[in-house]
Amino acid sequence: MKQMCGLVLAGLFVAGAGTAMADEGMWTMDHLPVKQMQQQYGFTPTQQWIDLVQHAALRLAQGCSGSFVSANGLVMTNHHCANACLSQLSKGHEDYMSNGYIALKQEDEPKCPDVELNQLESITDVTAQVSAATAGKSGADRVMAERAIDSKLEQQCVNGDAKTWRCDVITLYNGGRYALYKYRRYQDVRLVFAPEQSIAFFGGDPDNFNFPRYDLDVTFFRAYVNGKPANTPQFFKFDTQGPKAGDMTFVVGNPGSTRRGLTWPQLSALRDFQIVPGYALLSELRGMLWEYARGGAEQGKESQELQFGIENSIKAYNGWLQTLADDHFVEQKRAQDAALRQWMAATPERRAKYGDPWTEIDRAQQRGKDLYMRYAMLERGIGFGQFGELFHDARTLVRAAAERVKPDAERLPDYRDANLPAVQQTVESDVPVYPQYEETLMAWSLGKLRQTLGADDPTVHEVLGKDSPEQRAQQLVSGTRLADPAVRKQLWDGGEKAIEASNDPMILLARQVDAESRKIRKAYEDEVVAPTDKANEAIAKARFDRDGLTSYPDATFTLRLSYGKVVGWNENGEPVPPFTHFDGLYKRATGADPFKLPESWVKAQGKLDMSTPMDFVTDNDIIGGNSGSPVIDREGHAVGLIFDGNIHSLGGDFVYDGSNNRAVAVDTAALVESVRKVYNLPRLADELTQGHL
Q1: Contact, 691 vs 237, CB < 8 A?
Q2: 3-state class of 645 per DSSP?
Q3: Interacting residues of 137 by C-beta distance below 8 A, sequence separation 6+
Q4: What is the DSSP string of 244-274?
Q5: Which is nearest to 412 in space by CA: 395, 428, 394, 393?
Q6: How confident is the model at residue 202 (pLDDT cuts 50, 70, 90)?
Q7: Is residue 152 packed enough to be buried (19+ CB in 10 Å), middle (13-18) or exposed (0-12)?
Q8: What role does this protein play (predicted)?
Q9: Is 304 exposed, middle or buried (0-12, 13-18, 19+ CB in 10 A)?
Q10: Distance of CA 299 to CAs 80, 90, 439, 551, 593, Å?
Q11: With CB atoms counted within 10 Å of each terminal CB, which end of the chain scores lower, N or C?
């Protein structure tokens, strides 16, 4: 499944702050709260420390975080962030996602088909350039102006070498600032070690977003350059003892998307028009996949990655809905909006400078209500089996062929030259495709397309004809050749001529719906996104003028640092200690899923130190996308690995509550102990503790 972690899965259904308190905040590396850290913890980061953090931290382009943990390109991330690689490498009867994988020597490290790592090289403020390009423009003109200036800045940044560099113009503070992020790409990423699913996700769904936890949610990759392990002198050295209660901790990673700076009209529209229908769709999809997985072991293997992502997303949606329905939160947001709106209108000068962005937002949100579900079904591909491989590849090939012949500034953002290496890698990756699974997903999606848009909709008629969703899905999947990476490469290399000449039914479907999909995309961008962006920009500037640049921007899946400490919380009047230990893992084990230990852990019980810390919690401010983030200490040493938040963290997309919002991490002491004594990997354990092969 391409790009299917919880972050990206949730994003298929959902498009789209005041002064920070306590340890709240996901801070950009060029705007760290140095004074607050010094005042609260007596710690001032040096430039050397900041440089280490920036270059040792990594982004997994598919939707997670990671870090270099040796000088030889060793990368630490979560097991669930490696689900796609583990599933894709599990050809035949292998099942690395369930059974784990061990590379006993370097030659045993297989290449993950489509994992890309991004290492942040630099951040450049480009607010003046973007603002000048979009000044006075609205609607379609604003969209085109943004694409043109983004293309220009990204091309200059890449400087003709998009294989080595990736450059993205990032919107910060909801349009108040713009920054150009330059990354070094690593596309040769190989699998070193992954434990069994039953220990990586011990406790399963009952324990998910809860604590105490007893998970070894880790995978180690290795980045390669020119066929050899990458030289990565800036890495996080392992502290084999892990942290202690009360220790200051930092989480450095790539939180996906928060909406703390949005107005209440935007949040209420998000809840009513996107999250609520998205929750219903995900719940129905979960039920369909549950039924499919009951067909046998192979069906369970085929669907397990998507099932995992859906379970995570449903819990996240539930947390979002609880927050957005909380009376206190709603009143607080409305009061914040009213205070800012009153300040903006207090003088003629302010009224002239900021205009009336609130009216623009109301109008755009109402238009979004009319357009969103059609946009989600057609352009986001939910109505065409986008959760599978085949239509995703077909649409990418059709779009790439059409976009690559245009001037770079006029292309859809994903297909600009600066972004093409990642797109091409995904299309040409050698991943397994399961026909029955693809057919099941396609039939479900086509059924939702008809149900959502109506049986009389012209696009529905065009796609289905007189066939049922099941019949059409069978025709598409049985007739396509896109499961073969050689066929996809031929179509990519052949460009428009090859696409036009193709009679592959999946390519024909992608071509058939492309014009209508582009039409609804353009309408949504011109009538919803562009006016909302323009209004957000005015509101952000008003906040800056009133408060100064005292806070952090909403998360944008770019590198952020949060600071906090190892601390538990009170739940229903009872304290929740911040640590769990190996002895608690064995006491919790029942021998039945999801509390069944893998055989490796059963056999190793007598060799392990039962007092070894397993997992711990901190009050670091994190959200989805931080999965795989390292937890580091004042010295810049790794002491843990983020893999989850507690149930109270689910509202963190909209608000942070330091009293009970907790990040959950694997302790480095548990990682080293298990690698040595459970999996008998002295080579890997030595590299973790010594920093080199």
Answers
A1: yes
A2: strand
A3: 145
A4: -TT-EEEEEE------TTS-HHHHHHHIIII
A5: 395
A6: very high
A7: middle
A8: Catalyzes the removal of dipeptides from the N-terminus of oligopeptides.
A9: buried
A10: 19, 14, 12, 48, 18
A11: C
In this prediction, residues 366-390 reach a mean pLDDT of: 95
Q: What is the pLDDT of residues 157-168, one digit of tens each?
A: 999 999 999 999
> What are the residues whose beta carbons fall under 8 Å from the beta carbon of 548, sequence distance 6 or more?
none
The two three-digit tokens of residue 162, written as one number: 């998009």
CA quadruple 449, 450, 454, 455: dihedral positive or negative?
A: positive
Helix/strand/coil for 390: helix
In this structure, are residues 441 and 385 in contact, taking their beta carbons and an 8 Å threshold?
Answer: yes
Q: Which residues pair with 379 in a beta bridge?
A: none
Structure tokens at 574: 């009872």
Query: Cα separation of 632 and 629, whole Å?
Result: 9
Rounded distance, CA 156 to CA 160, Å?
8
- DSSP character string of 74-105: EEEE-TGGGHHHHHHH--TT--HHHH-EE-SS
CA dist., res. 45 & res. 190, Å (int): 33
Q: How many CB atoms lie within 10 A of CB 92?
A: 6
Neighbours of 157 (CB within 10 A): 22
**Does residue 637 carry a pLDDT above 70?**
yes
pLDDT for the residue numbered 2: 43
Non-local (6+) Cβ contacts of 534 within 8 A are 134, 138, 142, 175, 357, 360
Give the mean pLDDT of 619-637: 96
What is the residue type of 298?
Answer: E
How far is Cα 280 from Cα 12, in angstroms, rounded to an integer?
A: 13
Q: How far apart are CA 102 and CA 140, in angstroms?
A: 52
Task: Kindly report the pTM of this predicted structure.
Answer: 0.92
**661 touches 258 (CB < 8 A):** no
> Mind spelling out the 3-state secondary structure of 281-310?
HHHHHHHHHHHHHCCCHHHHHHHHHHHHHH
C-alpha to C-alpha distance for 488 and 124, rounded to whole angstroms: 37
pLDDT of 270 > 80? The answer is: yes
> Is residue 677 a contact partner of residue 607, using CB atoms and an 8 Å limit?
yes
